[in-house]
Amino acid sequence: MKTASSIFLRAGLLSLSLVATALATPCDPDYQGVTLQVATRTRPFIASALQIAAAGWEKQTCGKINILEFPVDQLYQTYLSALVAGEGKFDVITFGPFWTPDFAPYLSDMPAAMRETAAWQDILPVYRERLMMWNGRYLSQTIDGDQHILYYRLDLFANPQEQQRFKDKYGYDLAPPATWEQYYQIAEFFNRPASNLWGTAEAYRRGGEQFWYFFTHAAAYTHHPDHPGSMFFDPDTMDARINNPGWVKALEDYINGLNVAPPGALGFTSGDIHNIFAGGSVAMNFDWGDTGVNAADPKTSLIPGKVGTAMLPGSKRVWNDQTRQWDTFPEVVRVPFLAFGGWQAAVPANSSHIEAAWHFIAWLSSPAVSGEAVITPQSGINPYRQSHFDPQLWLKLFTPEEARLYLDAQLNSLNAPNVALDLRIPGHFAYTQALEVQLTRALNFEISPQEALNNVAKAWNALTVRFGRDQQRAAYRASMGLDREVK
Questions:
Q1: Residue 49 in contact with residue 376, Cβ under 8 Å?
Q2: CA-to-CA separations, 350 to 17, 37, 82, in angstroms, rounded
Q3: What are the tens digits of pLDDT across the range 251-309?
Q4: Is residue 438 part of a domain?
């Protein structure tokens, strides 16, 4: 039987080295008659990047790409149903790494040849060695790097009158917030509905990336620098930790954001807040890298040249789940959160075109093709390669100051000693669905934050028992870097 690796090696490393250059002979490799069914979320994000890459790949190989788009909140069930049923309807699927544990039994292994190139070494280690592997197998290719970072209006923060008024009111200099307390004070200061300006905007709609915004708040209060891996669960017992005082404080903060957000905030998705910031309606937000790229685009943004970027706020108080008390630190503890972890592409094992599918993924993720995608507004592609941090690349979109702030915030977050990884265990979809039910109730003031999170903890513990405590514990510890990959 031919494996994907042997096929790829037969095709030769030369074709991979020519990916995205379009310098080789047409139809090299020759995929005439091959049509790949590539599944992703509805555009613009990710799907538009796939469409652009597909045009170049089709010209190079003479193959065809058919992009199938589904609402983001339907992707998991759509993929899993097809994979379990063995339908063979997809040649490439794109998804977040938190679903890899559920999809792993149905995916083909990445060809070894893809890991023998300079392009492989160019991928940042956190993606290459952590999020593209499961159970010791490389099953997916990162095509997008994701983390939450802070955005702010440079013109507002640099205004001398605003600076003086802020200092008079709060007693310290106006600057990107170092703590979540400062974040809400600054948001309160700039919250001026009569002037069509609000403090901030976050995603609150169930199914609209809601829980990742909540997780970002929680990371600052629950990801203790001395106890890695204890943010979501006790890594020794797998008992849920989502209802401790650190998580409750995070939910109180998250709800508090509604007081300084534009009207209709409960319906906001992450896509909405990209546009709200680019429209100049808020002084700050935190989001993936898309907000910065979209807000810098003079074709659609009202604030090009005014986009500031910084690391997420942190906290001097972090809940210690071992001692069951708050620990106070002399300096602010920064906890960058790798929300989502970046879109990935994989090939189902029952695809009829495994060779061509992996070749398209190599093309899509190549330094040249992805390097254009990261600076393309509405692509949804954020930096994940060393080469993506070339300042000259970003001057096509940003001013020099904007580019410096954007790249520094991204790199400093990725290299921070207390960076927090997202939840990544089997049944992720069930855990987050149970969470969002209760988050929505709390956001609508039906129940208190503590009651909501008590309900979540009960549901999470029941799910852990259902999936198997030992299996979930091993998977959780592996995903948090506490043990080797679960076998």
A1: yes
A2: 27, 12, 10
A3: 999 999 999 999 999 999 998 998 999 999 999 999 999 999 999 999 989 999 999 99
A4: no
Do 227 and 326 lie in one domain? The reply is yes
Listed residues 331, 355, 379: the one ending a domain? 379
Q: In the predicted model, what is the mean pLDDT of residues 111-136?
A: 92
User: What pLDDT is stored for residue 25 in this prediction?
Assistant: 59
Q: Is 118 exposed, middle or buried (0-12, 13-18, 19+ CB in 10 A)?
A: exposed
Residue holding tokens 């510890």? Answer: 477
**Cα–Cα distance, 151 to 177 (Å, whole number):** 10
Q: How many independent structural domains does the chain possess?
A: 2
Domain, as residue range, for 77: 4-139+344-379
Same domain, 122 and 175: no
CATH of the domain at 278: 3.40.190.10
Judgement on whether residues 215 and 244 belong to the same structural domain of the protein: yes
How far, in Å, CA of 323 to CA of 284, rounded? 35
Q: How far is CA 461 from the centre of its chain?
A: 25
pTM score > 0.70 for this model?
A: yes
Tokens at 157, concatenated: 């923060």
Q: Which phi and psi (to 5°) does residue 395 adopt?
A: -70, -10
Residue 465 lies in a domain: no
Note whether residue 384 is domain-resident.
Answer: no
